[in-house]
Amino acid sequence: MTTTFLLIRHAAHDNVGDYLAGRMAGVCLGETGRAQASRLASHMAARPLAAICCSPRERTMETAKPIAIACKPEKITICQELDEIDFGAWSGKTFEELSQDADWLTWNSHRQQARTPGGETMLDVQQRVISLMQQLRKRHQNQSVALVSHADVIKAAVCKVLGLPLGDCFRFDIDPASITTVVSGDWGSKLIRLNEAV
């Protein structure tokens, strides 16, 4: 018996790629992101979902709501395990500013060991998302579950599925409003599709 996980990165906010949003409040989808979320919902409308689990950030909730309306699961479940990495003092800084920070450079060159100012490592992120997926697999056998989250959280899960070191997370992209599909069973997990655009 297997569970199909649809790992969905939130749609774009207005300044995606300009600054590190992290866990900042008030980061919402822009016009482009709302259109992306609508396309996601249309793409997934014919797919039965047993559950939609979502990071607590506004941008993930705004991405999940149209999917929930289209796919009609009972509700959206907020899961802290899907939250963005806790970037602490880095949150809100532009990537240009961060490029001058030695700790930021260490974080990006030594993902397996480095910690953010919020105290999280990439391994911490991987453990929390994989733990959630294991719990959900027990509850939703032979069903599909959508997990609406963030790029690095999805990358951490993919690295685990593929047996890649966490430092290899830069070898593939997870774009806004993309779907990455993983099937999981007692035998393990396999990647079906990576970074599918709709």
Main sheet specs: 6 strands, mixed
Determine Rg (CA atoms, Å): 16 Å
Binned strand content:
15-25%
What number is the mean pLDDT? 94
What sort of overall outline do the alpha carbons produce when their principal axes are compared?
globular
Look at the helices and sheets and give the structural class: alpha/beta
- Helix content, binned percent: 25-40%
Order of helices and strands: EHEHEHHHEHEE
Across the major sheet, the strand order is 3-2-4-1-5-6
Low-confidence stretches: none
Number of helices: 6
How many individual β-strands? Answer: 6
**First and last CA, distance:** 28 Å
Brief rundown of the structure:
The protein has 198 residues and is an alpha/beta fold. The chain has six helices and six strands; from the N terminus they run E-H-E-H-E-H-H-H-E-H-E-E.
Report on the architecture of this protein:
α1 runs parallel beside α2 and α5 packs across α6 (151-162). The chain has 198 residues and is α/β, with parallel strands linked by helices. β5 and β6 (188-196) form a beta hairpin. It has a six-stranded mixed beta sheet with strand order 3-2-4-1-5-6, sandwiched between helices. It is built from six helices and six strands. The radius of gyration is 16 Å and the shape is globular. It starts with a strand and ends with a strand.
